[in-house]
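Subject: two folds for Thursday's group meeting

Dear M.,

Sorry for the delay on this. The cluster queue was jammed most of the week, so I only got both jobs back this morning. I'm pasting them in the order they finished. Each block is the input sequence followed by the predicted structure tokens. Could you check whether the formatting survives your parser before we put anything on slides? The first protein is the one we discussed after the seminar.
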Amino acid sequence: MSGRLKSETKMAELGGSPAEVRTSAAFRGNGAADAPARTLPAETRFVDICFVEGPSGRKSYIRGGLDVWEYVFTAQAYDWNVAATADHLSEPAERVVLALEYYRQHPDEIDARLERMRKAESDPEVYLPRARRLAL
């Protein structure tokens, strides 16, 4: 099973999308544990997602926060747990939810960046030709 399919399957199990995961009090109606999750209206959902062009292409990030891939990478390690991801990154849960919702809508962009990172880790000379290995 590919990473994205596993991710999408897990998100579906958790409520359909990261924004619907009930671990973020910011997206609950009144903060009660049994309150239904809410998502932002479509026209305002990604207003805080920004983009920058760099050597590796376009990169999405959250205004005032981290790159979207950083939230996704960390959330994957925490089995998509919003609270654990927010705690690990020292970021508000609202940013984690926004990043995961953006990822749900644009998985190819983030998955491509994560795949480039995995390849660079496995063969750094190809992706970082001027880097030198240090023997410790």
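Second protein, same layout:
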Amino acid sequence: MLVKIFGSAVYGVEAISITIEVINLGEGKDSMIVGLPDNAIKESWQRIESTIKTNHLTMPRTKLVINMAPADIKKSGSAFDLPIAIGLLAATQQLKNAEAPSQYVIMGELSLDGEIRPIKGALPIAIQARKEGFKGLIIPKVNAREAGMVNNLLVYGVSHIKEVIDFFGNGEKGLEPVVINTREEFYQSQCSFDIDFAEVKGQENIKRALEIAAAGGHNAILIGPPGAGKTMLAKRLPTILPPLTLHETLEITTGITPIFETGFYLFTSYVPGHGYQVVGSHIRPRIMVPSQWNLPVGLSLSVEFGYQRPEYSSATWSLELRPIIDKQWGRWYLALNPAFEKSVRGLNSSTGFDFGPSGKISFDVTKLVAFGVEYYSSLGPVGRFDGWENQQHQIFPAIDLNFSPAWEFNFGVGIGLTRSTDDLMIKLILGRRF
């Protein structure tokens, strides 16, 4: 019987899903693990055999082949003990509902009696599991809170292999998923540190340099011999950084003539412990081609100019040019907005424009409701775009609601496509027409 179990390998800060195929050949005695496993994975056979026997299960004496795919990527670490053991039990028909584990990513190191020990990289493993559409993640209980920060994924923390066996044997019941209040965790993490920058004695020059870097948002590189204190200082740097913030925007737009309107934006930021603060403001005049010209598409140009306080943005004054091309075909609507943005004062003010195309397509389900997809990006300087992973690309499935001639509502959930883009962003706009 061939069984497929899914695990995950962490490389740097990213995870790659690993398919663990287990087949019971029924002939021979020498079982093997293939797919570039390291010594820790090869030694897992002894830990798995001890776990199975101490929990009164049957260790097969026929030949088993365990393949870890992709086979050309080196796998390392003891965190694959648990998925290999579950695959072995399913392949030898000792696990009820043997198809159920394929909906989960399973990771954990086994002790000789079946206890499950902590692993490294629980957060990137959870992010990758959600990205690939798995139903849930089963990991050591010690790591469950870290992985639980990822929403839209069932995270189960387990402390013994019997809990996993019983979970699948009882129709995926008996374990409660970890529930984390992400916003509360976010606020608590802003002022909860086990170490403190104030603990550093001496090192006045480097302390002063790091204080300047933290205050101005500058980069810093620490160079020195072993034992000089580089790691110690780097670990304490986050304790003097300003807290992360949640941003909100107020927009007011008014039509001055049928072809000209002006918008005003006020940016605010909520800082834990300090309340709301004004970040900056922008003004956005927009001119449109008159409808009397009867062009096949709508054409307009908006010019946005604004200021952001230096503690929130390295570009204190910025300019954006955004041509807008749109078209309505019956119930379908399409808009393309190639944007050109430049820092007028502040960091990168001496460079040219950055290019960031965006667009939207939507369908009017009724006169009040429209479903669509929005796309936003930032490719980098015109003429020398950044590499793909350093670009920002985000897709927003969105819904538009027109409650009345006076009110409109837009809601979207953004999904990042590159590592430089936020993995998840929620957009909510409530508009009042005057």
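Two things I noticed about the second structure. The first helix runs from residue 39 to 42. The chain has three domains: 2-180, 192-240, 246-432.

Cheers,
T.
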